[in-house]
Specification:
This protein has eight helices and four strands; from the N terminus they run ααββααββαααα. By secondary structure, the chain is mainly alpha-helical. The protein has a two-stranded antiparallel sheet. It has a two-stranded antiparallel ribbon with strand order 3-4. Helix 2 (about 25-35) packs antiparallel against helix 4, helix 5 packs parallel to helix 8 (about 155-170) and helix 7 packs antiparallel against helix 8 (about 155-170).
Length: about 170
């Protein structure tokens, strides 16, 4: 379905269609990654190559690797978005699809701090003080905590329990 001249976004079928469209691309990039001693992953249109052996990664000529990736993308009918390419080094914060992935996937610290502050303010001043006329504010709190629970189960579960305590008190 094309509307007007482009695929609609956000439909429940979108991930399945993206996976279908990227099937050959994924196979070819996975093969390249295996030859390089890396692991290839894709989430929607974010492509990642992860190297667990630092020496193997450092021995590669990164410009040549980018050239190979670009060739495969072009041959499969895709184009890289200019300016989105990044090399994430081990001693720096590595963010992929909004998650910090250095050791294991985690929610970025600044998001955790802001959400924790919001929960604290809800506890001290009441949920309504933070809602700012949003009728769905409690749903937002629960939704974000559930998202955190998928990535950091213990923290998300604790926040969901805290939200339940806040809402049952009102």
């Amino acid at each position: 379905v094309v509307w007007p001249g482009q695929l609609p976004q956000g439909a429940p079928t979108s991930p399945a269609l993206a996976n279908l469209a990227c099937r050959r691309l994924d196979a070819r990039l996975s093969g390249l990654a295996a030859k390089l001693g890396a692991r290839y992953t894709r989430y929607a249109d974010d492509l990642s190559f992860s190297f667990h052996d630092r020496r193997a990664a450092e021995s590669l000529e990164i410009g040549r690797v980018f050239w190979w990736i670009d060739q495969i993308l072009q041959q499969e009918g895709f184009a890289e978005h200019p300016g989105k390419r990044q090399v994430l080094r081990p001693n720096r914060r590595q963010m992929v699809t909004g998650l910090v992935v250095n050791q294991k996937p985690t929610i970025p610290r600044d998001l955790r701090r802001r959400f924790r502050a919001t929960l604290h303010n809800c506890k001290v001043h009441g949920v309504a003080s933070q809602a700012r006329d949003r009728d769905d504010f409690v749903d937002y709190l629960r939704g974000f905590a559930a998202y955190v629970q998928m990535v950091q189960p213990d923290l998300g579960a604790a926040w969901l329990a805290e939200i339940d305590g806040l809402t049952s008190a009102n």
